[in-house]
Write a structure and sequence with these properties.
Strand order of the largest sheet: 1-2-3-4-7-8-9-10-11
Strand content: 15-25%
Number of strands: 11
Distance between the termini: 47 Å
Order of helices and strands: HHHEEEEEEHEHEHEHHEHEHH
Largest sheet: 9 strands, mixed
Structural class: alpha/beta
Helix content: 25-40%
Number of helices: 11
Shape: elongated
């Protein structure tokens, strides 16, 4: 079993619904649920589950009555025993550049943001969240100012994909002309602190009879939860991304406090041992460009040395501002000079074009609207209350 960080507020834990929603169950969970509900006997449950699975994940139906190759009495029994409802879309925003962001409420007090970015990957990428809030407190990240509420279930992760495909008109599952071709676990939360749910969600998303997005087009980004990097590769065969942002422990501990627990030497060793790592399956290192902090030519050369021997590409991310942040984005000529050093060393180092900044949908800007108090504000209050 993977690590599952549980700092949940008891009141925010998911509660059992009177009618189970099967839209996010794994194949085995679906088969077992059909048997338990008496919809089909054990010897026919696998076949019936495959039929239902295809209607849910290939055709995107939310009404059992539309499952036309299932007998009417069975459809009625399914409708009595189960639900197929989507979560509530609280808010939908569309950026000037075509980026779409949804605020999705999966349960009372449980809200996450999901972002679709066109023209990324083969056609377009969906940035999904794995937790409500985050515990990592990366100082440049807006999500890090929101306290962790809880891990998302696999069903809640898959629901983000379903909501996006509803809005994009992606049902039934297209092949050559799909607009949503890639999934990136780069939204709210640290995926490797919720590996069990992330792995189950990837199994559902990648299933060839359903949503059918290849595992090679699914990327999981971690800030460096070293013990779970190997299990991620073994269980999911997903592409790996590392939220790096610094080349030495001292600076990285400031930017990514998790580095105090898992320093760079341990992180690099885990990356080098990632299952399937090769020139055809490179690790992506994400590096946010912070003015006067980590953007010097010396830092670029140190990055080259740090990644020596690792099949990798480096995404340079212009810092995306958010209310209350103390950082500034590096100047464009500085970013280009940084990229040139990496390119000369043989690393592909694209500069990520900021997308969705006007709707706070860009990298590092996601934060559910249910959390209003910023960490920066909390710190000011705490300092004011402390004795001199």
């Amino acid at each position: 079993m993977g690590a599952s960080l549980d700092l949940s507020r008891a009141a925010a834990r998911p509660t059992a619904a009177s009618t189970p929603n099967i839209a996010g169950m794994t194949r085995e969970e679906l088969r077992a649920a059909i048997v338990a509900a008496g919809v089909a006997p054990p010897e026919k449950a696998r076949m019936r589950a495959s039929q239902v699975w295809r209607w849910i994940h290939h055709y995107g139906v939310t009404d059992f009555g539309r499952m036309t190759d299932v007998a009417k009495e069975t459809r009625a029994a399914l409708g009595e025993a189960f639900a197929l409802a989507r979560p509530e879309v609280v808010e939908r925003q569309v950026s000037r550049d075509g980026t779409r962001k949804w605020l999705i409420r999966t349960a009372p007090g449980i809200e996450v943001e999901t972002v679709y970015i066109p023209d990324v990957g083969r056609a377009g990428a969906l940035c999904v969240s794995s937790q409500v809030g985050c515990t990592l407190n990366c100082t440049f990240c807006h999500t890090g100012t929101q306290a962790l509420v809880r891990n998302l279930t696999a069903a809640e992760i898959v629901a983000q994909v379903q909501v996006a495909r509803d809005d994009l008109g992606e049902w039934p599952s297209p092949k050559a002309d799909r607009r949503l071709s890639n999934i990136v676990f780069m939204g709210m939360g640290e995926p490797l602190y919720n590996l069990d749910s992330v792995a189950d969600a990837i199994d559902i998303i990648a299933d060839h009879e359903g949503i059918a997005i290849s595992r090679r087009r699914i990327t999981v980004s971690t800030s460096g939860v070293v013990p779970e990097i190997g299990p991620l590769g073994t269980r999911t065969q997903a592409m790996l991304a590392i939220s790096l942002h610094a080349t030495n422990d001292e600076l990285r501990e400031t930017l990514v406090p998790l580095n105090r627990k898992y320093p760079l030497a341990e992180l690099m060793a885990a990356v080098k041992a990632y299952p399937g790592l090769s020139n055809a399956k490179r690790v992506t290192f994400e590096y946010v460009m912070l003015k006067g902090v980590n953007d010097s030519p010396a830092e670029a050369r140190a990055l080259v040395r740090l990644l020596a021997g690792i099949p990798a590409k480096i995404n340079l991310i212009p810092f995306n501002p958010w209310p209350g942040s103390t950082y500034e984005c590096s100047e464009w000529p500085t970013i280009e000079a940084f990229a040139a050093i990496l390119n000369r060393a043989g690393y592909a180092s694209p500069i990520r074009t900021p997308r969705g900044r006007d709707i706070l949908a860009a990298c590092g800007q996601l934060k559910s609207e249910s959390e209003k108090l910023r960490a920066s504000t909390r710190r000011k209050v705490e300092r004011a209350a402390s004795p001199a």
